[in-house]
Amino acid sequence: MIPLVRDRSTGAVPSAFRGNKPIERLVDLMKEVRDLLAAGEEVKLDFDSKWGVTKDQLLLETHQKCAYCEAPTSLVAYGDVEHYRPKSKYWWLAYVYDNYLASCQLCNQRFKSDLFEFAGPEMPGPAITATMSDADLQALAPTSIPEPLDLPAVGAFVTAHRDEDQLIPNPYIDDPATVFAWEALDGIGEVEAVPIPGDAASAAKVDAAERIYGINRLELKRHRYGKYRDYTVFRQVVQDTGTALPLRQTCFDLVESMKQPESAFSGMIRFFDDQMGPLAPP
């Protein structure tokens, strides 16, 4: 996992997820919640799949990789628009652009699904009662979700996110390098995500990442090791002064490319690069 930056320009954020449209959708959801409460029924909602139009931009921002595991999504599947906070529990965030990221289908469907864990107080949703009028709901809706082009509103949403102290990082907000360390297991050809030594918060979050979206599933560990092995070989060639200079330069360039955002598992490579120290160009 690597840090991601959300493009908040009007050209990047689809019009369906800014301005009045998400507010209108939220009001409709609020009315459903109010009516279910009035009838004494369980609050369980159906959602219209409006978020598909965000996928291309989200994949652009994740460099065509899964925001969670950093495996390329477009090589073998279309990828998913993932609700970071699941819409089944955080229903008021169902149409909130800042709750979306791009993920692979394995992380999203096989593992995460509706799972979400946090250590702090739960992020509060809008306080709906059975006696609220439509006008009450209309007034409440704009204060309940962030407008993606309104930076103060986004800042308040980020603060609420951090107060909840979620156990799986959101790479648009949290720095994954403060959560994940990596361990190469040469004997079995795998690389595992592990906690930062002595960091209890990191240990809790790595444990959650294993359970909630399978950060250490076998196929990932093996693919990571392949990248790690290539990286270490390229470094050795660069440092071998007996090797021809053009080949050393090529391997140096390859090492640098493996740390770039578009490279698979670049967060892991950056970790090992920091551990091994600066690599001087040949």
Provide the fold topology:
Elements lengths: L19 H19 L16 H7 L18 E4 L16 E4 L1 H8 L21 H7 L10 H14 L15 E6 L4 E6 L4 H14 L4 H22 L5 H14 L7 H11 L6
Antiparallel strand pairs: 1-2, 3-4
DSSP helix count? 9
The quaternary structure here is single chain
Helix content: 40-55%
How would you characterize the largest beta sheet?
2 strands, antiparallel
Question: Mean of residue pLDDT?
Answer: 92
Classify the beta-strand content into a percent band: 5-15%
Number of strands: 4
How would you characterize the overall build of this protein?
The strands form 2 sheets. A two-stranded antiparallel sheet has the order 1-2. It has a two-stranded antiparallel sheet with strand order 3-4. It is mainly α. A hairpin with a 4-residue loop joins strand 3 and strand 4. The chain folds into 2 domains: 15-114, no CATH class; 179-276, no CATH class. Helices cover 41% and strands 7% of the residues. Helix 7 runs antiparallel to helix 8 (245-258).
Question: Which descriptors would you attach to this protein?
Answer:
mainly alpha; single chain; 4 strands; 9 helices; 282 residues
TL;DR?
With 282 residues, the protein is mostly helical. Helix content is 41%, strand content 7%.
